[in-house]
Amino acid sequence: MPQYTPPLRDMQFVLHELIDVTTAFKAMPAHAEVDVDTVNAVLEEGGKFAAGVVFPLNQSGDAEGCTRDPATHAVRAPAGYKQAYAQYVEGGWASLSCDPAYGGQGLPQVVNQCFYEMLNSANQAWTMYPGLSHGAYEALHAHGTPEQQATYLPRLTSGEWTGSMCLTEPHCGTDLGLLRTKAEPLADGSYAITGNKIFISAGEHDLAANIVHLVLARLPGAPEGSKGISLFVVPKFNVNADGSLGARNGIWCGGLEHKMGIHGNATAQLVLDGAVGTLVGEPHKGLAAMFVMMNAARLGVGMQSLGLTEVAYQNAVAYAKDRIQMRALTGPKALDKPADPIIVHPDVRKMLLTARAYAEGGRALCVHTALMLDQELSHPDEAVRRASADEVALLTPIVKAFLTDNGWIATSHCLQVFGGHGYIREWGMEQYVRDARINMIYEGTNTIQSLDLLGRKVLADNGRKLKAFGRRVADLIDEEGVREDMQEFINPLADLGDKVNKLTTELGFKAMGNADEVGGAAVDYLRVVGHLVFAYFWARMARIALDQQGSGDPFYTAKLHTARFYFAKLLPETASLIRTARAGVAPLMAMDESMF
Amino acid sequence: MPQYTPPLRDMQFVLHELIDVTTAFKAMPAHAEVDVDTVNAVLEEGGKFAAGVVFPLNQSGDAEGCTRDPATHAVRAPAGYKQAYAQYVEGGWASLSCDPAYGGQGLPQVVNQCFYEMLNSANQAWTMYPGLSHGAYEALHAHGTPEQQATYLPRLTSGEWTGSMCLTEPHCGTDLGLLRTKAEPLADGSYAITGNKIFISAGEHDLAANIVHLVLARLPGAPEGSKGISLFVVPKFNVNADGSLGARNGIWCGGLEHKMGIHGNATAQLVLDGAVGTLVGEPHKGLAAMFVMMNAARLGVGMQSLGLTEVAYQNAVAYAKDRIQMRALTGPKALDKPADPIIVHPDVRKMLLTARAYAEGGRALCVHTALMLDQELSHPDEAVRRASADEVALLTPIVKAFLTDNGWIATSHCLQVFGGHGYIREWGMEQYVRDARINMIYEGTNTIQSLDLLGRKVLADNGRKLKAFGRRVADLIDEEGVREDMQEFINPLADLGDKVNKLTTELGFKAMGNADEVGGAAVDYLRVVGHLVFAYFWARMARIALDQQGSGDPFYTAKLHTARFYFAKLLPETASLIRTARAGVAPLMAMDESMF
């Protein structure tokens, strides 16, 4: 049976020693009172909830899956999910970072994101039920009418109701411009919406009294393509003027998907048959409103893989210390045993350290990004808000794609540590791999993320956002480059920074000649920039660890060793990636389609 | 629903144009009469059997899995498996490459391996039932007494009975020296065997009348560790002197594993309770006899991932041509459609070409290795037999680990081409990924393969076997290096050859100082050598394709483009691998176990 311990010590390190979030909070009136003790207390309690309530349902939920009653179209989540959700609502967890104007606790996003890392470690499928609500909340908070906000936000904040994002249709996922769902105006200003949606996570279930669906559809006479899409809020149950639930709305679950993983989450096919909804934001501007949800969701997906990486690592370490098999190549270590624990074997350690370095590096990046999000939302200085928003925009595709690719690599390595037992369900490792696989796909495939990064966030922006992050890197190099003991980290960071600059310029020139060059290099490019970002945070973490070597606390020794491992064994992936990115698009496009 | 077309054209290219197997057969009296038409006819019929009979059972077998009757311990394979197996036996497929002395058709291993590639594309789980028989057949053929051979080989050859390999126990997989199963001598010269085995593929089922278990166990007073292990043959049903089936032997299925994939194959826990068996080979020399099975099995595992890579590729191509989504970055291509087929997108092509280049390169390597195996077994010249055996020994861990790692990468890419649909069971792609995962683990994890390659096959041998392969590479460079149009292939091949030599020497020196250096570099090293082998075959394939450019046959144009893709986009992985291999073991071993 798998185990999970919330990584509170490492979270505290990242929050308070590396990023120093509470100092940053002081500049934001909304969060100025949030101190170290508050953050730590919330996360300690959150960790108890994740490990104690949600984690025990992970394997059982995977085995049981969701069930749909064909007569009523009702969907039941696995046993225990509903009760755990009730505890979640009762504990006030839904409202952690929501607006006090709607009953929220108003805590920073940083705190909520760390809480979500733990929930995802504990049970990704369960966590998607409350997780999807955040996107609906954000979209309505940003673009809803006062009436919509009054109707929906308090119940989403409390968690009494959950949300969903209804974008995908059978013939369109990435290309939402193709969507066909139609919204016909009704006399009272609302709309009758008809169409078919698929892959709707948490699209139907029995955890909450109502589901607030955010639905993309076309108005009559809307322009073709993505410029003719509008966003609607469509509740599962209509809501009366007094806030009580009215009649069942015409949005039904037509079926559930059978998936590789996240079995505990209902992936619904939704049939909208004249379902009544109201417009969110401007007509035909639905994609912009949708991106408010989507950006939040993309950070959330990165957090899912961070959570899976952490829990897979913890279990692989426990197994590697316990399982005895073969002697160390350098001679027996556990003389009292018939063989050595497999953690003596270098490649087992390499697999473990890969997961560890990806988890800890990912945590640093996520906390930093969440703090930038807090500054974007709550900082009084507009220049800071804008700079923070730019950084969130730059880092979002990296969080989504780099962390989910890393999660796939890491969970697979952790499975491998278990040998044949890793392939057997009861050990729980293969579930982490299966669950991790969806994260590379949904909320924009990782290829789409890479095009977003290279095409939109870097090249279309003339490298402005990237240069801003580059200044962080340059400042660190200036500051720490004089320290002898930091050379082993600063030199490769500086080297990679130069290479990223050169590669970016080269790709920009190539793209002017042939737009396909962006598509040919983008996936490699994103991983290169991902490593630059990780190298930056690992260098900063190494500096703190070096300064604390006198403390006698093994935490800092481990941090330093993990930093060295990262620079020695993971960062060099960039050598290949830069070559393949520079090899250009011709080797991909030369072959005629008919020859495939 | 997935589709599968046997890749007969590419097999014929590899067999007859690249390797020219029938010319090689002429030097072997046992195979001198096997001509091109015979090979092609067998594979054409074999492909029909794989695609027509076995492939339709792949998804249903995955969904149904195997069932065990707790009262009788009997195991039933999924619906249709038994009937397909009967057709396999009736068609004579079991005996393809078996010894005519026992009723076999005596065809070369090369032919059987190509047939197995197609079976594995069609249904890996089903194919393991007949597949495991080959190991039992090989062990008894090489080490059985005349009586054992007379009793078992004709029935294994015909396929009436299947085989199994009973090695692993709950506390020992890689480290067979720890095994505890005991064999007590009986008065009649046989043994009563008692113990628990796990992870026994095809260990119990209803496809055949009897199962011939090859079981590792300890004799009384046996030396500790791996030098005290003996091999026994333990039939499910005892065999009477007249060859008829006698009483049920004391070997029972105690349970079936619930696995990530290969659900259609019964992975049995076997309880031996005084099961009667006879000794195979010498007492305490069981590991050597077992390695006869194991080496055959390792090549078979590589072939499993080759098959999965091919079928995943075929389906991803079909989807990429059919699915329309977004416009090409360079402007619309399918003007008659609302969007372009996704094969216009560079990264989709990169994912497809990765699978294609790994499949075609893997096929070349597997056919070459199988021909070396035929020469090892059947060549009249002892020097050729010995040199061929050395090459098989060198290439076996590469076939096993490089092809199965590539299969994991390729099947995951092919799933990704499908976007969200790749995660849904009905499309069949996620099954290929789940099935492919076990291949990196069983018959010696890929880490074990890498230690076998670097430690045993290369360093312990003073690089002799590697140098012999190096001479093939050098000969090709000498021969083709003068051709201008071969420079793009020969130059990187020569460069990588030099780097492999340097890296090997460097690791050899390091290993003398610290044995752990082998374990720290072996996995990277295996992939580097794997790419050297692939680059060698891709350069040879490119040469043939270049020579045929005037033929107007698009097959050769596609081959040339795929070769260029391989050199531009896959081979550069070696740049990173060489760096991480050279980074040494210190970053892996520095951290104390307690800090993990």
From TrEMBL, chains A, B:
Organism: Leptothrix cholodnii (strain ATCC 51168 / LMG 8142 / SP-6)
Family matches, as Pfam families: Acyl-CoA_dh_1, Acyl-CoA_dh_C, Acyl-CoA_dh_M, Acyl-CoA_dh_N
Acyl-CoA oxidase/dehydrogenase middle domain boundaries: 164-273
EC number: 1.3.99.41
Cofactor: FAD
Catalytic activity, reaction form: 3-(methylsulfanyl)propanoyl-CoA + oxidized [electron-transfer flavoprotein] + H(+) = 3-(methylsulfanyl)acryloyl-CoA + reduced [electron-transfer flavoprotein]
Family indicated by similarity: Belongs to the acyl-CoA dehydrogenase family.
Task performed by this protein: Involved in the assimilation of dimethylsulphoniopropionate (DMSP), an important compound in the fixation of carbon in marine phytoplankton, by mediating the conversion of 3-(methylthio)propanoyl-CoA (MMPA-CoA) to 3-(methylthio)acryloyl-CoA (MTA-CoA).
Keywords in alphabetical order: FAD, Flavoprotein, Oxidoreductase
InterPro entries in UniProt: Acyl-CoA_dh-like_C_dom (IPR025878), Acyl-CoA_Oxase/DH_mid-dom (IPR006091), Acyl-CoA_Oxase/DH_mid-dom_sf (IPR046373), AcylCo_DH-like_C (IPR036250), AcylCo_DH/oxidase_C (IPR009075), AcylCoA_DH/ox_N (IPR013786), AcylCoA_DH/ox_N_sf (IPR037069), AcylCoA_DH/oxidase_NM_dom_sf (IPR009100)
Domain of life (superkingdom): Bacteria
Gene Ontology MF terms: flavin adenine dinucleotide binding; oxidoreductase activity, acting on the CH-CH group of donors
Domain Acyl-CoA dehydrogenase/oxidase C-terminal: 285-451
Name of the protein in question: 3-methylmercaptopropionyl-CoA dehydrogenase
Coiled coil: none
Sequence ranges assigned to domain Acyl-CoA dehydrogenase/oxidase N-terminal in this UniProt record: 82-160
Domain Acetyl-CoA dehydrogenase-like C-terminal: 473-592
